[in-house]
């Protein structure tokens, strides 16, 4: 842990770590290096992957079970954090999932039950997590940050996950409105494609890689999540104390380009 870091003594809850290539892992590592205390969450059988990745962080960290579709598990995490810290300075939402039928060009044929799962895990979960944590976040005038992928356009093969991200972005705006009076900020990072485990599960992901390589004016390294992690931690810190309801693009400038 670095002494005097810009998030010194902050208390952060970080979701979405599966491997050390996860964007959330990079945020957790940087948070520790800059003086914060971190707790991770994992879900189901994937919690073993989270625990394995956690051992690669600079400091020991606890992994709490939290399936975002199970209110009792969310409540257990809230109770743990209240006992542990009594406040929460920041929370990272880096969770997304869609059944295979919802991806890969199957948009017209995905069944509602699968679409509902994608929307529940990838969009509604932002509110499902934020509402119970709000009293702890309010104690610190804390920050909620989520990771998104630009939902303002339709993408190849992304299909219903793109719809879920649109719902996710709208949810963040309504949370910013609802939680702002308590001093809680809610913002999103719209990241360019990074070759994580989640990305590899998307059929045709190479199409995103090729597009960014050609069009991002700053260039884009699909294997390096450091820039995304730095920007995310900055939003979680006090350095963006007057910003809420925002989507910050960390994508090499791709989103601003035409043909």
- Please list the strands of the largest sheet in the order they lie side by side: 3-2-1-4-5-6-7
* Count of beta strands: 7
Round the mean pLDDT to the nearest integer and report it: 94
Order of helices and strands: EHEHEHEHEHEHHHE
* CATH architecture classification: 3-Layer(aba) Sandwich
Question: CATH topology, what is it called?
Answer: Rossmann fold
- Give the distance, in angstroms, between the N- and C-terminal Cα atoms: 45 Å
| SS field, number of helical segments | 8
Rounded radius of gyration (Å): 17 Å
Shape: globular
Strand content: 5-15%
Largest sheet: 7 strands, parallel
Count of individual domains: 1
Instruction: Give the CATH class.
Output: Alpha Beta
Low-confidence stretches: none
The CATH superfamily name is: NAD(P)-binding Rossmann-like Domain
* Helix and strand composition category: alpha/beta
Helical proportion, percent range? 40-55%
């Amino acid at each position: 842990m670095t002494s005097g870091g810009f998030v010194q003594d902050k208390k952060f809850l970080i979701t979405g770590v599966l491997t050390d290539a996860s964007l959330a892992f990079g945020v957790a590592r940087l948070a520790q290096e800059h003086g914060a205390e971190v707790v991770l969450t994992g879900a189901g059988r994937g919690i073993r992957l989270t625990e394995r990745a956690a051992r690669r962080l600079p400091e020991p960290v606890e992994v709490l079970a939290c399936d975002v579709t199970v209110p009792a598990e969310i409540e257990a995490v809230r109770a743990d954090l209240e006992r542990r810290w009594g406040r929460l300075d920041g929370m990272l939402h880096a969770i997304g999932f869609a059944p295979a039928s919802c991806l890969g060009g199957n948009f017209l044929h995905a069944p509602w039950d699968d679409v509902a799962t994608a929307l529940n895990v990838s969009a509604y979960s932002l509110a499902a997590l934020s509402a119970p944590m709000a009293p702890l976040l309010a104690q610190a005038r804390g920050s909620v940050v989520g990771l998104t992928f630009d939902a303002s356009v339709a993408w190849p093969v992304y299909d219903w996950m793109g719809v879920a991200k649109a719902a996710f972005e709208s949810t963040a705006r309504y949370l910013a409105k609802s939680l702002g009076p308590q001093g809680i900020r809610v913002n999103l990072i719209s990241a360019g494609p990074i070759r994580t485990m989640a990305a590899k599960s998307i059929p045709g992901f190479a199409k995103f890689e090729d597009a960014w390589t050609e069009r991002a004016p700053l260039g884009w390294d699909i294997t390096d999540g450091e820039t995304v992690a730095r920007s995310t931690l900055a939003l979680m810190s006090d350095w963006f104390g007057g910003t809420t309801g925002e989507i910050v693009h960390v994508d090499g400038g791709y989103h601003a380009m035409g043909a």
